[in-house]
Amino acid sequence: MHNLGFALEAVWRVLLAGLILGAGLPALFALGVRSLAYGAGGPGRAPRPLGTAGGYLCFAIVLLGVALGITFIVASGFGKELSFEHVYPTVVDK
Amino acid sequence: MTIESVTETTVVLVLVIVTALGFDFTNGFHDTANAMATSIATRALRPKVAVLLSGVLNLVGAFLSVEVALTVSNAVVKIQNSNGTPKQDLVADGGAALLLIILAGLVGGIVWNLLTWLLGLPSSSSHALFGGLIGATIAGLGWSGVNWNGDGSKLDGVIGKVVLPAVMSPVIAGAVAATGTWLIYRITAGVDQRFTDNGFRWGQIGSASLVSLAHGTNDAQKTMGVITLALIATGAWTDTTNIPFWVKAACAVAIALGTALGGWRIIRTVGKGLVEISPPQGLAAESASAAVILASSHLGFALSTTHVATGSILGSGVGRPGALVRWAVAGRMVAAWLITLPAAAVVGALMWWLGNGVGGLAGAVTIFLVLLAAAAFMYLRSRRAPVDHTNVNDDWDARRELADADR
């Protein structure tokens, strides 16, 4: 059952990437929402600019993740693939 | 080869192309739910806006497939060489033998897609297509025509490309979505709803759009590959490194129209039937789907968006303490997954025998007519209890009681 071996090999990588991008980014997004709410203050409380800034920082990181996803879709459409050889992603030929 | 047989093959080729585009169309509306069911159920988007957005993104995604693999069928059947050209002995008669296998396979895929749509079950369109092709190949070439297990060098064959991913991907997606849901609820506990509602609305729209785009690039390609294979088999196209532009355009438009039509029956099951979805769950589910689909396509792990999306939604139900998960609905769905490939294979094989028995052009026309009759029958059946954008979000249990009262 060589296929089972290959599949299990792929599975833990997909699970790892899924947890980082598919659960980590939404968690960061949630943190951004919380931070924005904290920054907005409330009735009888002054707004806290630091919270607002932190919120937008979280959203910016999430957007980078989304951009990575779109880059991957476009690159594979053009027969290229993303390489994570240099840690940061680069587009290379397949 | 006589002039007559050339014209006959051309007519069959046209039938194959029309049927392939028909399959692409059912692929579209069968899978709208994967991306948009959560956004529709949580009312992040109005139903018609959601399916239209998904349709447009599928169109864009399909056009992004500049490099299309012609070897899509190689994962499961042996009707092509590794460079994408058809096997020699299948095109010895001008391509008729290969065209019949493709046509019968496509009919098997469409019939199963329509039946599961009628029942509101989200089954995998790729499994239906592969199943149909496998059945038609077994009928036409025997058991040895099927690539069951690959050659041992990589993840390949029916086991490696279809069965194992189908078993594993919903579990991975479910685990990711459950983790995401749990984290989101922990992090935003106690935050005023006016912040969470708007934030998660945009999060859902963004992640669902990503799923739609990925779907367009992945799924439209399969039909493009099948049509080009048929063109090469008849000698109408010879380039194995490119596909004709009109094929790409036609497939892109077919899948986009299908998606924009919206498979409301399936959207209802996925969005309302499995889990009562809240906006944070919707965000977690769609993000998990997008991440798992993209990561696995990066790693060459061929999975079905349907299995991932439904796994994610179930996971988002598991990850939220106290959420209602309708395991009976999930069980019905899993049963449909299990029989999708064999059932489409049986239809594909029957169609091949029918077409081959009648023979020639008449045979191809006969199975095409059978397809039309089956499609018309299922459409008429669907009109008895229509589901559309007006009632897609109706309360699940209330409708169930009505249906039971009718019986």
Largest sheet of chain A: 2 strands, antiparallel
Residue share in helices of chain B? over 70%
- How are helices and strands ordered from N to C of chain A? HHEE
Point out poorly predicted stretches of chain B.
none
Instruction: Report the uncertain regions of chain A.
Output: none
Question: What is the oligomer described by this structure?
Answer: heterodimer
The biggest sheet of chain B amounts to:
none
Strand content of chain B: under 5%
Distance between the termini of chain A: 28 Å
Helix content of chain A: over 70%
* Overall form of chain B: elongated
Structural commentary:
The complex is a heterodimer of chains A (94) and B (407). Helix content of chain A is 71%, strand content 9%. Chain A is elongated. The two termini of chain A are 28 Å apart. Chain A is mainly alpha-helical. Chain A has two helices and two strands, in the order ααββ. Chain A has a two-stranded antiparallel ribbon. In chain A, helix 1 (2-39) runs antiparallel to helix 2 (49-77). Chain A has helices at residues 2-39, 49-77, and strands at 80-83, 90-93. Chain B is mainly alpha-helical. Helices cover 73% and strands 0% of the residues of chain B. Chain B contains 13 helices and no strands. Chain B is elongated, with a radius of gyration of 21 Å. Classes of the chains: A mainly alpha (94), B mainly alpha (407). At the A-B interface, helix 1 and helix 2 of A face helix 5, helix 6 and helix 9 of B.
